[in-house]
Amino acid sequence: MKYAGKTIWITGASSGIGKAVAIEISKEKARLILSGRDKEALVEVSDQCKRNGSTVQVIPFDLGLPESVKKAARKVLSQGGSIDCLFHFGGISQRSLVAETPLELDRRIFEINFFGTVELTKALLPQMIKNGGGQIAVTSSIVGKFGFPYRSAYAASKHALQGFFESLRAENKQNNIRVSVIIPGRVRTNISQHALDRSGKAHGKMDPGLDKGISPGRSAKIICKRLKKERKEIPVGGTELLMIYIRRFLPALFYYMSSKVKPL
Fold first, then answer.
1. Could you read off the pLDDT of 23-71 as tens digits, one per residue?
2. Domain 7-260 falls under CATH 3.30.70.120
3. Which member of 112, 143, 148, 258 has the greatest number of CB atoms within 10 A?
């Protein structure tokens, strides 16, 4: 897979891993569509990508608002042409206990992380199939593989994404739809600062574990290299990724360790 000349739509492109991936791919002179809620930040990312030789269109929208997702999809599809790749990096995390989290906050997290992502995918999938195929990548998380304290709705939404996109892959092999699930561990982004607390407000703090994670730029290089190879799962992070395999092969050890890990 080469991205030169391809049309690639990247959500969550205003910051973090999505921004870093957009900049990394722009070095290959692709046609990029960058989305997120922060138009000003998207324009700054767009300028960097243009300097790398890519053409860029900025389409701001809010994953948590269904009509905003539909409007963005209609705008892009109305322009004609084809979307070769759809890379999902938009989402929000959580920092609150199950017992203190109101159900409306669980629903809000699912609306952003799961339903918004699924809605955009469904809007573009028929066109991708009609045009002979395409590549879709979705960002899950290490906690998309297991539950973790203070992350109940976030972990659940990431489990849901795993199930949905693995089903999509299985259904569309004959349609040449290639699906990759990205599984970040600790990457030094602002995700914990924007995570929702029990009142629905921003957590406003950098998690110590995340602060020691790999940089977004480093994660982007790993992700892009593996996307080109069309890997079905793309773990990215440090030694914390070992928890995935401990959970699978040594569950008793996992349960012991997870009870000892500081969640914040």
1. 999 999 999 999 999 999 999 999 999 999 999 999 999 999 999 999 9
2. no
3. 143
